[in-house]
Amino acid sequence: MSSKVVKQSMMKQVLFFFILCSITLQSQNFNKVDNLVSQYPKFTKIEDLTNQIEKDFTSDENKARAAFYWLAKNIRYNLKEYYNPKQRSYQFKYSSEEEKISKLQAIKDKLVSTTFKTKTGVCEEYAQSFKKICDLLGLEAAVISGYVRNSPKEIGRPKKYSNHAWNAVKLNNKWLILDATWAAGHLINGKWIRKFNNYFYNMPKDKIFKTHYPEDSLWVLRFGSISKEEFYNQPIYDASLLSSKAELLTSTTGILKVNASKEIILKFKNLENSSLIRYAFRGDRYSTKPTISFAENTYTLTIKNAKQNSFLTLYLDQSAILQFQTN
């Protein structure tokens, strides 16, 4: 081997090491960002939060993360409005497009101001707040309106109107998709549980349509090609499954047919901790362990005594990871 080849080989190794270190440092930086932001007070003005972020961080990536983390940790989801939604409509006059944009922004700013004062809001408040912080920090961001599903009742039933809002932020010429609302916590038995979920910061591009579907076709085309009907026909995926390496190989439709033996067969790849998998149908008092077999990196789950016209929930270590309808 010539000295030139040896040098090139060494350079490639050094380059690989540098890239690996950069990735590791980025992950460590987010831990540092989160830890520092955790010490921030509960700001009542968005300008105060923005000034603090500007003071503490230099990179756009860390600024965006700081804004997202603070919102998810400090704004509590408004369950009253969730269960009794108010129709939001605004009327105003304008004589030019510039005046229209200005008045719309004033409405959004008032919404954000109230959110910071009350520390509560629904998806629109989270999304508009993140967008406003990014505007003040000089980051390119957008509010995305669209569709999400929360219950197996919604499988196969597309909604006519959008029911959620989340964000995109452009960093290093790439759009990151994030949802501060879903990162902030979740509903259990009608109660909102505050628990930060990192999955919803920079959601994987190939999994966005498992949980979120934009109303604007431009955002759909940026990440793939799927219709609203196809989106609604999927199972209900939980972030704990999507953030793992596990992949559902069969029955990717959300409506399962019970066979003549009253069984449902599901196949997975890379299903870690399969021994902790259990299932339950609507109305069951207790969950049941499926029959599990493994061959060629594929886990086959056989669910017996399956109920027709019901809802099926799969649990991993007592957490719901997938939901289906049955017929």
In words, what does this structure look like?
- The structure is a single chain.
- The protein is of the alpha+beta class and 327 residues long.
- It has two domains: 17-234, Arylamine N-acetyltransferase fold, CATH 3.30.2140; 247-326, Immunoglobulin-like.
- Helix content is 39%, strand content 24%.
- The chain is built from eleven helices and 17 strands.
- Strands 9, 11, 13, 16 and 17 form a five-stranded mixed sheet that branches. Strands 5-4-3-8 form a four-stranded antiparallel sheet.
- A hairpin with a 2-residue loop joins strand 14 (291-295) and strand 15 (298-303).
- Helix 1 runs parallel beside helix 3, helix 3 packs antiparallel against helix 6 (123-137) and helix 5 (97-118) crosses helix 6.
- The longest helix has 35 residues, at 3-37.
- The model is unreliable at 1-28 (pLDDT under 50).
Distance between the termini: 66 Å
From the alpha carbons, calculate the radius of gyration and give it in angstroms.
23 Å
CATH architecture of the largest domain: 2-Layer Sandwich
- Name of the top-level CATH class of the largest domain: Alpha Beta
Q: What's the SSE pattern?
A: HHHEHHEHEEEHEEHEHHEHEEEEEEEE
Helix content: 25-40%
Total number of strands: 17
Number of domains: 2
Uncertain residue ranges = 1-28
Query: Which sheet architecture does the biggest sheet show?
Result: 5 strands, mixed
Q: Provide mean pLDDT, rounded.
A: 89
Query: How many helical elements?
Result: 11
What best-fitting shape do the alpha-carbon axes yield? globular
What percent strand? 15-25%
If you consult CATH, what is the topology of the largest domain? Arylamine N-acetyltransferase fold
* Protein structure class: alpha+beta
